[in-house]
Every structure is written in structure tokens, then in C-alpha cells.
Write a structure and sequence with these properties.
mainly beta; about 45% strand; 1 helix
Length: about 130
């Protein structure tokens, strides 16, 4: 990522083997290596590890997906689907990287223009507050 796209401090981790039911909201970055059934909101980057799984809607600045997400994703900054990632649902982002081997089953909306993505980013930031 470019200098301005660096993830913030990672201080919230849901470890491998853990299961969480409910909505999660964090101010900065979040890493999920376990399973979440509920909505996830982060003020910066969400990293879903290889064994991680989210069943719910995601609103973050950036997404790095190595595991699975089933639900809609709003990531106005950048979304990266690594080679074993699975995304089933709608994705809204301005920059998208899909590695060979990733599965994306759904709809994607992208825009270069600042107006729509700034609105989406503002919505994600307002949820945290």
C-alpha cells in the first residue's frame, strides 16, 4: 500500500479457534483469525486471516481478505482478495486486487471519483464514532 494507505496500529485480534456472535466495532485495525457471525466495522483495516470467517456486513477503510466473508463489504480505500480468499456478496471499493485462486461471487461497485467514495468512507468513519 502507498504511504497514505498504511494500516493503523493493530491492537484488536480475534484469534484462531475463537467464535464471536454479535457486532464488532473498533476504532483502528482489526485482525480476525476465528469466526464472526455479525457485522464488523473498523476505522481502518480489516485483515481476515486464512482461517478467518465473517458472516455479516463489513464496513472498513481497507480490507485484506485471506479467509472468507459472506455479506456486503464497504471498503472505500482498497480491497485485496488473496489467493485462498472467498467473498460472497456485494463489494464497494475504489481499488480492488484479486489474486489468482481467489473466489469472488457477487457484485462489485468501483469508482475513481472522490464524491461517492468519500461519502462511503465518511459513513464508515461515522459508524465508529
Amino acid at each position: 500500500m502507498k504511504n497514505g494507505d498504511k494500516p493503523s496500529e493493530l491492537n484488536t485480534i480475534l484469534g484462531k479457534g475463537s467464535v464471536f456472535e454479535g457486532n464488532i466495532k473498533v476504532e483502528h485495525s482489526l485482525r480476525i483469525d476465528g469466526r464472526v457471525k455479525g457485522d464488523v466495522t473498523a476505522g481502518d483495516t480489516l485483515i481476515v486471516g486464512l482461517d478467518g470467517e465473517v458472516r455479516g456486513n463489513v464496513k472498513v477503510k481497507h480490507l485484506i481478505l485471506g479467509g472468507k466473508v459472506m455479506g456486503s463489504v464497504v471498503a472505500p480505500g482498497r480491497a485485496v482478495l488473496e489467493n485462498k480468499a472467498e467473498l460472497h456478496g456485494e463489494l464497494k471499493t475504489s481499488k480492488l486486487v484479486i489474486d489468482e485462486g481467489a473466489i469472488f461471487d457477487g457484485k462489485c461497485s468501483m469508482t475513481d471519483g472522490k464524491s461517492k467514495m468519500d461519502k462511503g468512507q465518511a459513513e464508515a468513519e461515522n459508524i465508529i464514532q
